[in-house]
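wait is this the right file?? whatever heres the structure
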């Protein structure tokens, strides 16, 4: 125990093993909803839900242990919200890509993420993107996730004339809406694990009022086999120009997600030096890239640092030891798959809506009165839910930005890196239209 305390600098950071364990438990409870939500989303691609439950937990265990033991920070990792939607709804269901090819895209995006993290290119890329577009990307993904949540809830349905319309108040819709309001109220009162509690309440209501939801015959079991999706990625199949836009989009969404979350959590944990330096950030992002590569091999979407790590930090987590405890709790969750498999989509849909709301909270930071900034930002956000594609939103937003800069003579604001990104976006739009 003494060696563990010395390795994680327990005394130096004025914490204790007990405090780290409690902080890890709070982080786990705050993000455990991903065990339910991620399999529900990815199983829509035809991937077996049971295997996805195990893979989601294993990816979280590996990524969290890596960032905790290597970077020694109280962060937790798991397959990211937004990126799983991008995998399922943009690539597989939207563009007709096989889930095996999509896993290849995840792996390659992880390879490039790791390379730019090791060589420090990530800062140049982030600095090249205007702050307005960075915010718009996050907000747009939030809108897209919320739209998917309402669709899974049954509140929004297809319509032949207006494309979408309100769905009828079926028992599933009523239970889903009730679950959403209960979850929001719990969040307002800052109840730990509010999203997880909401999912459990929605499932219990489903068991009571939905004849399609049944109690499991047993609670504990060995983890479902991951064989149907493990090492099924098709890397060679996506080494084509037509997949460049998808890999680029996964890379950028993952990059901004992880950097933004890591910085926010670093401030929360007082890991930022007086000069604003965060020496641990390089290792965090390297761990993220490696974990994403492993996610593609395991059979799930990109792994990212979870913002819910901040809840554990607020409750006393200060070192990477808390991450080790988070990984332990995900390991224990592997043996509760019979409960997880009965959770209906309308019980997890409110989590998507709420996460979407949280991702959209910085919308006020965009100056819409300046059309040179406002129009590209608006296109980035609106094109994501309307085209059912995160990559389309990014491409149109970036393309619009450099075109407006060119015609309004604001080219001095555009960095060489942004010119390259914008031109690539235009080419990806043209290639997509030629298919």
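ok assuming it is, sequence goes like this
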């Amino acid at each position: 125990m003494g060696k563990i305390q010395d390795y994680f600098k327990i005394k130096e950071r004025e914490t204790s093993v007990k405090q780290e364990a409690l902080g890890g438990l709070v982080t786990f409870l705050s993000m455990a909803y991903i065990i339910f939500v991620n399999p529900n989303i990815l199983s829509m691609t035809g991937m077996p839900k049971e295997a996805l439950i195990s893979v989601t937990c294993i990816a979280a265990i590996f990524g969290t242990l890596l960032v905790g033991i290597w970077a020694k920070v109280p962060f937790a990792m798991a397959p990211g919200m937004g990126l799983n939607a991008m995998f399922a709804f943009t690539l597989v269901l939207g563009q007709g890509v096989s889930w095996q090819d999509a896993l290849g895209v995840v792996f390659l995006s992880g390879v490039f993420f790791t390379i730019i993290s090791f060589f420090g290119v990530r800062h140049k890329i982030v600095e090249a993107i205007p702050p307005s577009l960075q915010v718009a990307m996050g907000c747009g993904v939030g809108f897209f996730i919320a739209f998917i949540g309402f669709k899974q809830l049954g509140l929004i349905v297809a319509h032949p004339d207006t494309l979408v319309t309100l769905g009828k108040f079926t028992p599933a819709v009523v239970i889903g809406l009730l679950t959403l309001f209960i979850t929001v109220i719990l969040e307002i009162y800052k109840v730990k694990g509010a999203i997880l509690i909401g999912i459990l309440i929605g499932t219990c209501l489903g068991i009571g009022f939905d004849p399609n939801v049944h109690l499991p015959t047993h609670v504990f079991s060995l983890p479902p086999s991951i064989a149907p999706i493990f090492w099924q990625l098709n890397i060679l199949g996506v080494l084509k120009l037509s997949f460049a836009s998808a890999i680029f989009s996964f890379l950028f969404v993952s990059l901004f997600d992880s950097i933004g979350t890591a910085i926010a959590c670093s401030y929360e944990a007082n890991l930022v030096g007086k000069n604003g330096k965060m020496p641990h950030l390089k290792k965090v992002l390297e761990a993220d890239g490696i974990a994403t590569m492993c996610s593609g091999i395991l059979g799930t979407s990109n792994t990212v640092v979870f913002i819910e790590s901040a809840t554990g930090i607020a409750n006393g987590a200060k070192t990477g030891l808390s991450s080790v405890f988070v990984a332990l709790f995900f390991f224990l969750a592997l043996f509760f798959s019979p409960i997880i498999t009965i959770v209906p989509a309308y019980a997890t849909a409110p989590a998507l809506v709420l996460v979407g709301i949280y991702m959209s909270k910085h919308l006020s930071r965009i100056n819409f009165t300046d059309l040179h900034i406002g129009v590209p930002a608006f296109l980035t956000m609106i094109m994501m839910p309307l085209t059912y594609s995160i990559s389309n939103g990014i491409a149109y937003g970036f393309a619009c930005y450099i075109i407006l800069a060119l015609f309004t003579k604001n080219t001095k604001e555009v960095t060489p890196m942004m010119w390259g990104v914008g031109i690539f976006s235009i080419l990806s739009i043209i290639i997509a239209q030629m298919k």
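The radius of gyration is 21 Å. so i think its the right one actually
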